[in-house]
Amino acid sequence: MTGKVRVDAWMWGVRLFTTRSAAAAACRAGHVRVNGVRAKPATPVGPGDEVAVHLPARDVVYEVTGLITKRASAAVAAQHYVDRSPPPPPREHVIPVAQRDRGAGRPTKRDRRLIDRWRGRPG
Description:
Shape: elongated
CATH architecture of the domain at 5-89: Roll
Helix content: 25-40%
Number of strands: 7
CATH class of the domain at 5-89: Alpha Beta
Largest sheet: 5 strands, antiparallel
Structural class: alpha+beta
Distance between the termini: 60 Å
Strand content: 15-25%
Mean pLDDT: 86
Strand order of the largest sheet: 3-2-5-6-7
Radius of gyration: 20 Å
Low-confidence stretches: none
Order of helices and strands: EHHEEEEEHEH
CATH topology of the domain at 5-89: Structural Genomics Hypothetical 15.5 Kd Protein In mrcA-pckA Intergenic Region, Chain A
């Protein structure tokens, strides 16, 4: 297959999103960049282009190596991109989340100050 395909169809085909409409919504929300430029759903991509996507869990950067317009298995989809995503941060750099007992209700003012101090926020 030669030429170019729509970025939303390509992202759906390589299994970045479960539906093509979700891929298009991510484009419209500004979470997708093609070669460093904000992409609309119909932005064409071809081999050699870089697609950067901001996902809820992490940011991914893929280099397009092949064109795909239909959703395929993960093994087939992996042949159409090279993952250039930055590695996730080390575990010790991840900020721990405060845990409360289930059903304990909202924190009191004193609890909130302790939580803010624990997170390193100015009081």
